[in-house]
């Protein structure tokens, strides 16, 4: 279990090669100095099938967590990009609710406290007033389910304008006031959609349950190496220090699955990312070092 006297620093599951077993993913994260892993349930059939894991499969994951002393406190639930609540297709919306219900139950069984939502009304369809209304209805029902289970749903600040800023997220928080409906800012996305990131963070600090640390540059939201984008990390960490944010930070990056990676190579890749981020945190006066 990680030290609660410092800010925990986690790694996104997709930063590790798809070829790795869960045991290897836990081992790599631990070896690179991370406190936790954020599990991915994306729109692929392989990852959506995790929502149907048996109790024995779930217990196997829990045993790996105990063995490697690594936890999974958060879930990145991006499967709703393909099956959004705002879709005008009723069958798609039914699938969205099915995914949500199963994700909440899986979170309960794995000990996950927070499900990060892909905050799109629609992604592969045209957005309009009707899709936005349907999205809001979907969020209301989802928060009801999550609150009964004691699991927090947190809107990610996304890579599209729909909820690309905390201000836009607050619009929904005000319509669904609940201790189980919060926000999960992404430094990289927020940087590209806001000219005043500090004010955005200040606006949403009381509703923030975790923060993605990701590099981006104008128009590019994925696979930008740390240090090669435009995210002012030290400045952002400084603002979070000023706001007394003491919660989780999650490094979001993606492994290159086009080539094989050994355990040593994977550990070195995510360790370098951790070193980069922790340097920026130290400069801002935030303690995350083990």
UniProtKB/TrEMBL annotation:
Pfam families: AP_endonuc_2
Coiled coil feature spans: none
Gene Ontology BP annotations: L-ascorbic acid metabolic process
Keyword Zinc-finger listed: no
Molecular functions per Gene Ontology: intramolecular oxidoreductase activity, interconverting aldoses and ketoses; L-ribulose-5-phosphate 3-epimerase activity
Sequence ranges assigned to domain Xylose isomerase-like TIM barrel in this UniProt record: 26-272
Keywords: Isomerase
Stored InterPro entries: L-Ru-5P_3-Epase, Sugar_Epim/Isomerase, Xyl_isomerase-like_sf, Xyl_isomerase-like_TIM-brl
Protein name according to UniProt: L-ribulose-5-phosphate 3-epimerase
């Amino acid at each position: 279990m990680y030290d609660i006297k410092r800010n925990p620093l986690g790694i996104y599951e997709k930063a590790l090669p798809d070829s790795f077993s869960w045991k290897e993913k836990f081992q790599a994260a631990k070896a690179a100095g991370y406190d936790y892993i954020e599990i991915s349930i994306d729109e692929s059939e392989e990852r959506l099938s995790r929502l149907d894991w048996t109790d024995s499969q779930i217990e196997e994951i829990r045993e790996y967590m105990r063995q490697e002393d690594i936890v999974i406190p958060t879930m990145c639930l991006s499967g709703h990009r393909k099956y959004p609540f705002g879709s005008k297709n009723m069958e798609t919306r039914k699938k969205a609710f099915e995914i949500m219900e199963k994700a909440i139950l899986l979170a309960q069984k794995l000990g996950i406290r927070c499900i990060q939502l892909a905050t799109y009304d629609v992604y592969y369809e045209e957005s309009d007033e009707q899709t936005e209304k349907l999205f809001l209805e979907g969020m209301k029902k989802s928060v009801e389910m999550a609150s009964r289970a004691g699991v927090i749903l947190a809107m990610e600040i996304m890579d599209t304008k729909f909820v690309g800023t905390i201000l836009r997220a607050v619009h929904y928080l005000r319509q669904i006031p609940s201790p189980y409906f919060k926000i999960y800012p992404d430094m990289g996305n927020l940087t590209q959609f806001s000219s005043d990131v500090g004010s955005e963070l200040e606006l949403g600090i009381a509703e923030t349950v975790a923060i993605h640390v990701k590099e981006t540059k104008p128009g590019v939201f994925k696979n930008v190496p740390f240090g090669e984008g435009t995210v002012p990390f030290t400045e952002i960490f400084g603002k979070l220090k000023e706001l007394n944010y003491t919660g989780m930070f999650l490094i979001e990056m993606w492994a290159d699955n086009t080539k094989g990676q050994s355990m040593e190579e994977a550990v070195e890749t995510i360790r370098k990312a951790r070193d980069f981020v922790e340097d920026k945190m130290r400069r801002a006066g935030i303690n995350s070092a083990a």
